[in-house]
């Protein structure tokens, strides 16, 4: 099959080549109807950008680097899908590394990406990352960087995040309205921005309903099943076990569910559960898991658009107007948190 070009699309749709080019790049200068028309035609006729030709023309690698904590996490898998879709349509390759929640691995990943001369970087920080000097140095040298999900306020660049505070507040409030009073929040690394925001949302909901904050019910835990089991055993060994659980990820929720079932603790009668990020199989669990859904695909798409806009931005003495884009989450209520 012969590949079509931008000129072919322009001729077929009676548009200029520059309009087609900007529409394929997702430019905001093009109205949505024209953009939709161009993209649908391009997809129908199997249009494929030529990254090699573009890189020779622009003296760029036409590739972007992505560093995530874990590809095996469904949330980050969806983010990567969003990134890849935008990058592909705009003629870029995506090079993906995972830090495995390690600061050291994050540094090594960054070295590999810079040696490959990527045009820009998208990164979600590892659970161990406290200092972001490695990113600041790279950014000051002119590397376009966009942070997503797990971010740092110490770098002045675009950031794309979920409304973690509101998500945790809504989930905690739901548990309170279901009659729960000893609600434990099981969260990840205390260094992460998402952890701080979700803990604050949890505390704000308790304060709203006059429930004292018990620091022993805020638990920081890794994703290792043994660590989850140890923490759960501690929570249920006392005289006043929790009657509600809010986890910051569905992966933590799965570990908690396994322990509760082994101890024959009924859900939601004895304890209610809410997870975060919405595993695709959450509704298939027994009981189906109530969860806070984050717009992971949209986060990837928005992050990629922002980064590519920075990469393709014409040189100027005026610095970019960096912003933080907050995407809203939604609580999906299922059987795990509602008494029959």
UniProtKB/TrEMBL annotation:
SMART domains: HTH_LACI (SM00354). The keyword Transferase does not apply. Coiled coil: none annotated. Pfam families: LacI, Peripla_BP_1. Residues 4-58 form the HTH lacI-type domain. Keywords: DNA-binding, Transcription, Transcription regulation. It comes from the Bacteria. InterPro entries: HTH_LacI (IPR000843), Lambda_DNA-bd_dom_sf (IPR010982), Peripla_BP/Lac1_sug-bd_dom (IPR001761), Peripla_BP_I (IPR028082). GO terms for molecular function: DNA binding. PANTHER family: HTH-TYPE TRANSCRIPTIONAL REGULATOR GALS (PTHR30146:SF109), LACI-RELATED TRANSCRIPTIONAL REPRESSOR (PTHR30146). This is LacI family DNA-binding transcriptional regulator. It comes from Arcicella rigui.
